[in-house]
Amino acid sequence: MKTISNKIILFAAAIFTAALSSTLVAPRASAASLQEITNFGNNPTNLRMHLYAPDSLPNNAAVLVAVHYCTGSGPAYYSGTQFASLADRYGYIVIYPSATRSGNCFDVSSSQALTHNGNSDPAAIISMVNYVKSNFSVDSTRVFVTGSSSGAMMTNVLLGVYPDVFKAGASFAGVPFGCFATTNGSSWNSDCAGGNVNKSPQEWGNLVRAAYPSYGGTRPRIQLWHGTNDETLNYRNFNEAIEQWTNVFGLSQTPTYTDTPQSGYTRTRYGSSGGQAQVEAISMQGVTHNLPVNAAEAIRFFGLNSSASSSSLSSSRSSSVISSSSIANTSSSSSSLPRSSSSSLTSSSAPRSSSSSSSVASGARCNWYGSPIVLCVNATSGWGWENQQSCVSRSTCSSQPAPYGIVGGTTSSAPASSSAPASSSSSSVAVSSSSNSSSSASNTTMQVCNWYGTRYPLCVTTPSGWGWENQRSCIARTTCRAQPAPYGVTN
Predict the structure, then answer these.
(1) Is 39 exposed, middle or buried (0-12, 13-18, 19+ CB in 10 A)?
(2) Is 425's pLDDT higher than 80?
(3) Is the pLDDT of residue 460 over 80?
(4) 255 and 280 in contact (C-beta within 8 Å)?
């Protein structure tokens, strides 16, 4: 075992928004903003708390705790996922905890973390929930939790140690409750990460029950997501988690319902066939630890989106991708995270354009806070999905402040990703220019990164992972080259 300071865990090097299919969640136009809350109560591990409360918050609102990955933060998870955008639409409060220990990982290993009313990160997060209950009109029976990687582990932990607080959780690339437990003070469990902790369903269930032995109430439902090619937290953890939570509910490990909601995805439900089964598990074929965080599907599972279909995963159109590096034994600094070019935290990152070709409406495109996005032909408002790529309607694009908005208008159909995001005249980012100006001709031979079909600037100064240079996100050459063919560094 090694301590967290010796075991570098880059669970996430970047967050960017990606579309899975048709109508996307539009960037929020609310005047609400992310707020940091201090002195929120018992905080034994010095976590930070950020809060997003929509302006049009109804009485008896639901509460969602959204927990970041290692090296991340609450504000980064806020701007990199769609949970706040969906809160604007459906009227719930989002709490974003931030870990402050080395590596910014949450404690999911100590005996205190794995015990009800223990004195560690879970206790601090419960203080955040109690703060919201005391200061807002919320429904205490509708408190939910979700998270990615380290945050997914914490999701499992919170459901285990505080089943009296949470109604349901959604775990994106996590491990079973108690799998990461250590007894030597280490924060890292290599056996669990490697998928080498194999227990019977009863043994897994006993770990959850032992966390709060006197609890006899209803257990929170759980939604599990995992990629079969996860190189950081082995895919075997997915099946172990299914065994654990089905046992906690007293269910068979044989699915009640199985479907393929989209290519490569296998969804199984246990306990019922409906959209709010006690256990729902989505296996993502060929996906690594860089799995999409499908916020809309999590919200659907929680029952916070009454208009969403409970039978089709493809009805949820919005996701964000957590891009992570594999674990290394050598020291490395944490990568910075892509952020929206907008100066306001209330503007979420826009979906990136696909590498597919599309006829751009009237040859024009949308300069969306510095990134070129295809204009929709059919969608009249918000975001759309046309010709296998995301697009933005003219009305939504035109609503941006100057100098952003609709640009061009004389060219005909063109590939949506033929140009990387345009750089400013003082840019230090190596990126092909999307301008037709002859003055930028010197940039046209510069290279970009084809990141799983989407073109991004290459960083100049960031040595690994993702960076933020010249007011835009960029990818280090080493990280870009680590992708499988045909992706990587290209002209």
Answers:
(1) exposed
(2) no
(3) yes
(4) no
Residues forming the active site: 149
pLDDT surpassing 60 at residue 120: yes
Beta-bridge partner residues of 5: none
Please provide the average confidence, as pLDDT, over all residues in the chain: 76
Higher pLDDT, 32 or 416: 32
Place of tokens 């999911």: 108
Q: What is the mean pLDDT of residues 15-31?
A: 36
Express each pLDDT in 296-325 by its tens digit: 999 999 999 873 333 345 333 345 654 433
Two structure tokens written together for 23: 């109508």
State yes or no: pLDDT of 475 exceeds 80: no
Domains by residue range for the chain, with CATH:
14-323 (3.40.50.1820), 350-418 (2.30.32.30), 420-491 (2.30.32.30)
Task: Give the pLDDT confidence of 347-381 residue by residue, as tens digits.
Answer: 333 333 333 333 333 468 887 555 567 788 887 76
* Residue 170 burial (C-beta neighbours within 10 Å; 0-12, 13-18, 19+): buried
Between 478 and 99, whose confidence is greater?
Answer: 99
The residue with greater pLDDT, 245 or 478, is 245
Three-state secondary structure of the chain: CCCCCCCECCCCCEEEEEECCCCCCCCCCCCCCCEEECCCCCCCCCCEEEEECCCCCCCCEEEEEEECCCCCCHHHHHHHCCHHHHHHHHCEEEEEEECCCHHHCCCCCCCCCCCCCCCCHHHHHHHHHHHHHHHCCEEEEEEEEEEECHHHHHHHHHHHHCCCCCCEEEEECCCCCCCCCCCCCCCCCHHHHCCCCCCCHHHHHHHHHHHCCCCCCCCCEEEEEEECCCCCCCCHHHHHHHHHHHHHCCCCCCCCEEECCCCCEEEEEECCCCCCCCEEEEEECCCCCCCEECHHHHHHHHCCCCCCCCCCHHHCCEEEEEECCCCECCCCCCCCCCCCCCCCCCCCCCCCCCCCEECCHHHEEEEECCEEEEECCCCCCCEEEECCEEEECHHHHHCCCCCCEEEECCCCCEECCCCCCCCCCCCCCECCCCCCCHHHHHHCCCCEEEECCEEEEECCCCCCCEEEECCEEEECHHHHHCCCCCCEEEC
Q: Which residues pair with 169 in a beta bridge?
A: 145, 222
Comparing CA positions, the residue from 279, 149, 272 lying closest to residue 224 is 279
